[in-house]
Design goal:
heterodimer; A: mainly alpha; Rna Polymerase Sigma Factor, Chain: A; 2 domains; B: alpha+beta; Immunoglobulin-like; eight-stranded antiparallel beta sheet; 8 strands; 24% strand; binds zinc ion
């Protein structure tokens, strides 16, 4: 097997209008982006539309990707999350899918055929355990903000917690997450 | 204001993508003074927040999604301008016709609908976008008999940026054409401000394309009279009042 090109090399080809490179980027990351969009928006067609918008954004805006600021996957996840949250907010508060904690998701299906590489699987396991090790109340604040796009006031209402406590939990939870992930930070352009 | 734990709390919420609401201005003021602690926290916090997204189970996409996406790449800059030249803006017309960055909900819906079909629709998609963009822009502003214009110059971090606003007090809308805009990170957008009664009023957010160009039809202005225009960099989705650096600003006559 030919060793695969780095994500950053693919981005350079995409910037040069190489549609095949976008196809490769898609094959590599679409399942994770769709997983994230579905987590935010639920199972309907909207999640797929978000993934489509994200790759079209990558196609149009490849030049705005800056390797110094993080991995390609991070960039794609941020773009997917913000588009999915925009749609969620546009739907209005009434029709939000209920927040599904990670534990309740059950064991993930065998993902060997879905995920591009063992490095990806490994990185997901690291992130999953880092999130899972957070104290439940801090994790709830992080997940409500990230997956449901709630404001601090909305989080306070939803969790029946004073606003000041929400802020403290956001700060402590995110700092803990950062510390847990610190040993794995790779400054390179490839893995997150 | 010196750095405090309170700023770190706001930075954490910002990194998580939570709208700060009334607290946004406070944090922006603090960051504007240049706080290395907050900047480092924000960068690392954003990366850490992404772990939430990266921890989700992947989902196998349906096979046709790939076809749809690659099909939608289609011709981005085809379609020569139609024979009828525009009365006033021969040069601007070319730009307008090439415009795909155009923030109109109806157009966006049309575009999404078309995109969701198949590859051979790419050409029609482009034509539909062009026609809609052209019709709406012309009808609202460029053909109004009270059209006015103002040149915008680059400012601050983007002194090379250039822009032109055409607006109609009667239509209470404007069209911004800008070039040489810097690419922004995915969580930031350009925001257009119209100055009315001496105050900047949000006139909508937009993105520049990969070559730094944007053609953008503003949101409706609350008042008819516009004294000046400016563009700032703001968190994606925009802010109710300017918080980021000014990158384009006009010089009122
Ligand atoms: Zn600070």
């Amino acid at each position: 097997m030919i060793p695969s090109e780095s994500d950053a090399a693919l981005m350079a080809r995409i910037e040069a209008r190489d549609a095949r490179a976008l196809g490769e980027l898609y094959d590599r990351h679409a399942p994770r982006l769709l997983g994230l969009a579905r987590r935010i928006l639920g199972g309907g067609g909207e999640a797929e539309e978000v993934v489509q918008e994200t790759f079209l954004f990558a196609w149009r805006s490849a030049a705005s990707y800056d390797a110094g600021r993080g991995a390609v996957l991070t960039w794609l996840l941020i773009a997917t999350r913000s588009r999915a949250i925009d749609r969620l907010r546009a739907r209005g508060a009434g029709s939000r899918p209920p927040l599904r904690p990670l534990e309740d998701a059950g064991d993930p299906p065998a993902t060997d055929d879905v995920e591009a590489s063992s490095a990806d699987r490994e990185w997901r396991a690291i992130c999953r355990s880092a999130v899972g090790e957070l104290p439940a109340e801090q994790r709830a604040v992080l997940e409500l903000a990230y997956f449901e796009g709630l404001t601090q006031q909305e989080i306070a209402e939803r969790t029946a917690t004073p606003l000041g406590t929400v802020k403290t939990r956001a700060r402590l939870g995110l700092m803990k997450l950062r510390e847990r992930l610190r040993p794995y930070r790779r400054s390179g352009t490839d893995a997150p | 204001m010196p750095h405090s734990e309170r700023h770190e709390e706001l930075v954490a919420l910002l990194a998580l993508g939570a709208p700060l609401g009334a607290d946004a201005a406070e944090l922006e003021r603090h960051r504007a003074e240049g706080c290395p602690v907050c900047e480092a926290l924000l960068a690392e916090g954003r990366e850490a927040a992404t772990a939430l997204g990266a921890s989700v189970d992947p989902a196998p996409p349906p096979a046709e999604l790939r076809v749809r996406i690659l099909g939608a790449l289609g011709p981005r800059r085809a379609a020569p301008p139609p024979a009828t030249p525009w009365r006033v803006f021969a040069a601007a017309a070319a730009l307008l016709l090439a415009a795909v960055v155009f923030d109109d909900a109806r157009l966006r819906r049309d575009r999404e609908e078309l995109r969701s079909r198949s590859a051979d629709l790419a050409g029609r998609l482009h034509n539909a976008e062009t026609a809609l963009a052209e019709r709406t822009l012309r009808a609202r502003v460029l053909e109004s008999d009270d059209m006015q214009m103002m040149r915008l110059g680059g400012s601050g971090p983007q002194s090379g940026a250039r822009g032109m606003v055409y607006w109609s007090p009667k239509a209470r809308r404007g069209i911004l054409m800008a070039g040489r805009l810097a690419p922004l990170p995915p969580d930031r957008q350009y925001e257009l401000w119209v100055f009315q009664n001496g105050k900047p009023v949000n006139a909508g957010v937009f993105d520049a394309d990969a070559s730094g160009r944007a053609v953008f039809e503003s949101a409706p202005f609350p008042e008819a009279e516009a004294q000046n225009f400016a563009v700032t960099v703001e968190p994606r989705g925009g802010m109710p009042a300017p918080t980021g650096p000014i990158v384009l600003v006009g010089a009122p006559a």
